[in-house]
Amino acid sequence: MFATSVASPALPEALWPVPASTLRWDSQEHLFHEGDPVSAIFTIESGAVVIYRTARDGCRQIHGIRFQGELVGIGYNVTYGVSAVAVRPTSARAVSRATLDRLLDNDPTLARQMMRALTSELRRTSNLLMVIGSRTAIGRVAACLIDFSNRAADSDDTFVLPLSRGEMGDLLGLTIETVSRAMTRLKVLGIIALRRTDTVTIRKRATLLALAEEDGDGAARGRLCACSEARCTRYPPNEMTTTENRRPPVH
Amino acid sequence: MFATSVASPALPEALWPVPASTLRWDSQEHLFHEGDPVSAIFTIESGAVVIYRTARDGCRQIHGIRFQGELVGIGYNVTYGVSAVAVRPTSARAVSRATLDRLLDNDPTLARQMMRALTSELRRTSNLLMVIGSRTAIGRVAACLIDFSNRAADSDDTFVLPLSRGEMGDLLGLTIETVSRAMTRLKVLGIIALRRTDTVTIRKRATLLALAEEDGDGAARGRLCACSEARCTRYPPNEMTTTENRRPPVH
DNA sequence: GCGACAGCTTGACGACGGTCAATGATTTAG
DNA sequence: CTAAATCATTGACCGTCGTCAAGCTGTCGC
Fold first, then answer.
1. GO MF terms on file (chains A, B) (predicted)?
2. Which residue from A60, A82, A236 is facing B58, i.e. has the nearest CB?
């Protein structure tokens, strides 16, 4: 859900031949905190990093998770706009802000790559916003699973969840319990299989996709309770002819 | 809520002395649609533009509104990642993508400005995500009003709503009715005053701010029903000592 | 093996907000 | 001024999901 084919990929390592040092973090260690002065930007070599922000009242909103080959901390600002924490042992190459700034002066190509990377970051946040803004719990979880499965390097339909239930909740704007119930429901419906609570096998990808996109194609409708005919009708889907995202607002 | 002091401002017009033509749109006319090839980026001279995306099922998620001096369409990609529609008669200067690309080759400063603008765009989307991900209806509406009041050029506490109830709903992930109820509640509580349904006066800014940030400082709590003591406890606020956004995740 | 602990699951309950429907307010056309 | 259209408001109803509180499962140390 959060990565898309439209968005540009992260900078390939081959195109990133700049002075960099490799750093390591244990699980739960922070790469940086929101508000810290920007010291460097990072390319993950191995592991996984969660990007998040914390509201005043302590609510945490995870913005996404980044894996090998992806960039972390690329906001071009004085301070980091998000926090970044490793969720498993992680190594990453750090390019200092000073180095980056120096290179940017002489390399328009690098600037373009940074712009593309920022655009990609924006796209992912936008995608998450779409999911949280209009999907119900099971739709959000479905979208999350689809995303993980697309990004996992494992065999196509089985992968290990990189996030705990609580972290998935913080990502999707749900509670632990609601995430758990959604997972259980997906399991009971035979859409996924679970082993050890963190190993997922997608059994009915089409159905899962439908849930993630709330296509409402009869079958198991998006609701956790699966008993309502209602769907998101903030804008009724009376113009679903266009295959691509192209739909003027009702006025 | 969506603009922040942390984020960099849009490019000042003075720093944008590039070949540009001024275009005009009536209310409800599109500047561009998501998926269109990027032809230009725009600096609004007057009017207001809504940025949005439409989900497959027809749900519209407004990402934000842009006013005079702000940029629209700055994603650095082949196609636009969002749609943009004028919500009142609007004029904007268009810098073609070709021109931009030519200038980027020779002007590292411009590249930096673009990166800052993209970072600002990212920040706004992130802020909206924070609001939608964890605030209840009245908190979302409160945050929206605070944002409008901060950005309005009018007298400090009175401003004209640039969005209809329905558009506010599409922005905040709520229905028209819920937005309306929240506005009414804010009015009944004496926190705002309404004239002609689109002219708002903020009477108790501190309270409105508290609602927007769910500080839960006694007084009128965030709920529409105002009878529950419960608050967002996805991550209990047991560490609210830090004044700024700095809070390690619970592990 | 056992106990302790963390994370996950499941149930009960109720509030929030979506849905449907009717009414009211404002604007525009004639 | 009246009619029509659009938008906003208000009410009734109920599904979803947050909350609270058990119980369950798997892991770790010993």
1. DNA binding; DNA-binding transcription factor activity
2. A236
When mean pLDDT is compared across A98-107, A118-127, B86-95, the lowest value belongs to A98-107
Domain ranges of chain A: 13-132, 136-213
Task: List phi, psi (to 5°) of B153.
Answer: -85, -5
Q: Could you give the dihedral angle defined by the CA atoms of residues A191, A196, A200 and A201, in that order, rounded to the nearest 10 degrees?
A: -70
Contact A6 B232 (CB under 8 A): no
What pLDDT band is residue B106 in, cutting at 50, 70 and 90?
confident
* Direct distance between the N- and C-terminal alpha carbons of chain B, in angstroms, rounded to an integer: 28
Asked if residue B12 lies in contact with residue A235, where contact means CB atoms within 8 angstroms, the answer is no
Around A189, how many Cα atoms within 13 Å sit in the side-chain half-sphere? 24
Instruction: Specify the CATH architecture of the domain B13-132.
Output: Sandwich (2.60)
The predicted structure's pLDDT at residue B58: 85
- Give the integer Cα–Cα distance in Å for A34 and B244: 9
Which positions in chain B touch A3 (Cβ < 8 Å)?
none
Sign of CA dihedral B92, A7, A234, B131: negative
Strand partners, A195: A199
Q: How confident is the model at residue A81 (pLDDT cuts 50, 70, 90)?
A: very high
Q: Determine the angle formed by the axes of helices B137-151 and B165-172, rounding to 10 degrees.
A: 110
Strand D neighbours (CB under 7 Å) are A 136-138, 173-175, 177-178, 196-197, 223-228, 230, 251; B 164-166, 176-177, 179-181, 183-184, 194, 197-198, 230-234
- Confidence (pLDDT) at B51: 97
Query: Shortest CB distance from B30 goes to which of A8, A52, A248?
Result: A248
pTM: 0.85
Confirm if A4 and B34 have CB atoms less than 8 A apart. no
Write the residue in A52, A60, A108 that is nearest to B104 by C-beta.
A108
Longest CA–CA span in chain B (Å) reads 61
pLDDT classification of A11: cutoffs 50, 70, 90: low
Within a 10 A sphere around the Cβ of A251, how many other Cβ atoms?
10
Q: Give Cα A194 to chain centroid, integer Å.
A: 21
Write down the CATH number for the domain with range B136-213.
1.10.10.10
- Residue B165 CA and nucleotide C30 C1' are separated, in Å, by 29
Query: How confident is the prediction for chain A on average, in pLDDT?
Result: 81
Q: Over the stretch A24-55, which tens digit does the pLDDT of each residue have?
A: 999 999 999 999 999 999 999 999 999 999 99
Q: Name residue B130's amino acid.
A: M
Which positions on chain C have an atom < 7 Å from some protein CB? 7-12, 15-21, 26-27
C-alpha span between A153 and A167 (Å, rounded): 21
| Residues 6+ positions from A246 with CB-CB distance below 8 Å | B33, B34, B35, B54, B83
Q: For tokens 């005919």, name the residue.
A: A229
Question: Would you tell me how many other CB atoms lie within 10 Å of the CB of residue A15?
Answer: 10
